[in-house]
Amino acid sequence: MNPGNTRRVGRPRLSDELNPLVTLTAEERRSLFLEKAAELFEDQGYASTSIEDITECLGLSKGIFYYYWKSKKEILLEIHARAVGALNTQLDEVMRHISDPGQRVTKAIESHLNVVMRHRSLVAVLLGEAAFSEETIKERRAYTERIQHILEDAIQAGVIDPIYQPKILAFALLGLLNSVAQWYQADGPMPASEITAVYLRLAMQGCQKH
């Protein structure tokens, strides 16, 4: 048997001309599945969404799903991982390029909102009630701690009022920013830049030292 022609038993050939995913890259295929699954998990709930629901919305057979994931739980975990990963990647850029404590707070807020609005469904699922893995819990906690440290630096620099406890302020700030995932629509009447400006003003005016 030619090893170059082997494939996993029971998995559909992606080269099939009837497969609408054939023109997409591997990453684009996974992202398409993840986005659609996240939308359904958000709208119907994780428990009420079946694998058939996901594939039918994409006009695909159920077998296509199993080319990428072993179970619905596996796709949920990847949604969680991608959402947290996107938040950390954006925050890494802020930490790498911004050293001023006050500007770091501003840019951290902007970067967080950027991820929420660009990946709204993924973030909404991350913030939902579906069961989290221990790894997801650790990653979410670590991200919150990163925001807390940024706020601590801003307090020490005299940018944020020292009456606030950094840990509580971090929870409050993330709660405000994450609320955007509950209603934001890319085709809504207010562009993302204006929404960011409103939330940035609310956040900074509420905690800045005057």
Automatic annotation (TrEMBL):
Residues 50-69 bind DNA. Residues 27-87 form the HTH tetR-type domain. Keywords: DNA-binding. The keyword Transmembrane does not apply. The keyword DNA-binding applies. GO terms for molecular function: DNA binding. InterPro entries: DNA-bd_HTH_TetR-type_CS (IPR023772), Homeodomain-like_sf (IPR009057), HTH-type_Tx_Regulator (IPR050624), HTH_TetR (IPR001647), KstR2_TetR_C (IPR041490), Tet_transcr_reg_TetR-rel_C_sf (IPR036271). Gene3D superfamilies: Homeodomain-like, Tetracycline Repressor, domain 2. Pfam families: TetR_C_24, TetR_N. This is HTH tetR-type domain-containing protein. It comes from Sulfobacillus benefaciens.
